[in-house]
Amino acid sequence: TRFIDVGAAQLGPIARDETREQVVDRLIALLHQGAARGCELVVFPELALTTFFPRWHLDDGEGDEIEGDTTELDSYYEIEMPNTATQRLFDEAKRLAVGFCLGYAELTPDGHRYNVYILVDREGEVVGKYRKVHIPGHERHEPWRKFQHLERRYFEESPDGFRVHEAFGGTIGMAICNDRRWPETYRVMGLQGAEMILIGYNTPLDYAPDPSQNPLQAFHNHLVMQAGAYQNGTWVIGVAKGGVEEGVESLAQTVIIAPSGQIVAQATTIDDELVMARCDLDMCDRYKKTLFDFDRYRRPDMYTAITDG
Ligand code: CDT
């Protein structure tokens, strides 16, 4: 049987003035906890190096292009990885022989901005990179909101889509936050044989376009990830940046979900907290080779509206 001992490393809030060095200290502390508990992979959340900056309108422009003064905005993006601030994390992970998954904002040399997740193996090598596919929120400053959700201003949609990586003795996929609400996310990776899908999130409890959803945030969070796990016979590791960050309350409830759809570990705080589970990758076949034997039972010819639409 193939096991991966996985740590889901939830983060509490990251303040606007918190430095990368301070945050990296927190990540390394979680890495040590993971190593002490036998983890070979520690999963950090979406945008794990900075505050969730899309809550502010930070450039001077009004159009869809980023323009004007972008000094603070640009300070939230990484232009290389590893870099001066994160090299310590890579070095310590390699020393401990613990792989990790890290979310951050990427500014490419040719000026593209993506919300990304990287998978780093136990030797400290980046073995996979994922750029967020489903970018939620809005493109322009909306002053009526208590806080902004300007992801659609600050990030481009992935041109790459969902891939899987052979790593940690299994087939691993990645997704970021809003991606977890869409069944296609899991299915596209399920069709590539995903045995474990890593998902980091920042989810404000206050959803301005329809506040009636606010009390359901925790329910919807687990609903979508448990369904995605079960319907594709895969482990799902859902990792939050939670707590009250710059006055905005965000969902915690980090979870590790089995291919049965059952939650096997869950965070109990809204702060930095590592939960772990021994994940049996061979458990995936119980679902992939029976009820969800895709080759035998799926009817793709009946689903053409999904790709034609
Ligand atoms: N980070 C992220 O994608 N958050 C969204 C918030 C809701 S859309 C404004 C989410 O789907 O959780």
From TrEMBL:
Its EC number is 3.5.1.77. SUPFAM superfamilies: Carbon-nitrogen hydrolase (SSF56317). Residues 6-288 form the CN hydrolase domain. Keywords: Hydrolase. Gene3D superfamilies: Carbon-nitrogen hydrolase (3.60.110.10). GO terms for molecular function: N-carbamoyl-D-amino acid hydrolase activity. PANTHER family: NITRILASE C965.09-RELATED (PTHR43674). This is Putative N-carbamoyl-D-amino acid amidohydrolase.
